[in-house]
Amino acid sequence: LDSELEKNQLYCVSFDISLSDLSRYAVNGVGAYLSDRKIEQGNTGVLNRKASVLHKSDKVMSLQDGWETVCGTFIGTGQEEYLIIGGFHQDSDVEDEKMKKPTGIAGVIKNQAYYYLDNVKLRPIDAKSQCACSAADEVRTDLVYGSSVVLSESMTPDEIVSISAVYYAFLKRRPAGAGSATVAKLAKILKENPSWKLRVIGHSDEDEFNEGKINPRYRGLGEKRAEQVVAKFGENGIAASRLVVDTMENSDPASTRDTDISRAQNRRVTFELIK
Description:
2 domains; CATH 3.30.1330.60
């Protein structure tokens, strides 16, 4: 690289790949690795590193008469100086496809998976949506977290409120059906305790927060979710004066794991009783 990556900066890594016409095999596991040092492998041994970026579906890259794009995001640590492109799977994880020699191609098939590279790019971005190779690589938008919490009759109102949450699909502000049921349950508690108030706290995941940086429509999404939930309480007969809107946005994640389900768990509205 021309210079070290910036610490905590989100980057888009992308490159185009095409399988050689004389390759007997096509494989998966082709990706990129960002390193703070030069890595050399002097023989045919395994390059024992975990790829920083792989194709989203980790498919076998078998296209010979054109180019496929591999892309993904990476957060810099401030130390990376080298970009390595290659195959990063262990033997047990490699999927291969045996190729036929294309018609009209001269030469002898070789027992290898040899790829051509082009259009290698590494650029800073603000949100993951700015690093989509194709429509299939967009952030999964339809996943709504389903809590496995089970309420028991012995629970106090405080306990019920503390474990209750409304969950959302990516970039959505209106609660799903399960969220409406949660609001109805909490509204019942408020009706039974007319002196109590409820703090309604909106959250977003990290990707949503970053989308808000580049699209004003999604800015303050956690607060907008909380406001929509307050409106739902109104439909259940609870006055707005008994509800306090608050927002944490992406600063209080329920999970810090880098998975779709963990991000869905962070897209939520939570509650606190005010007595």
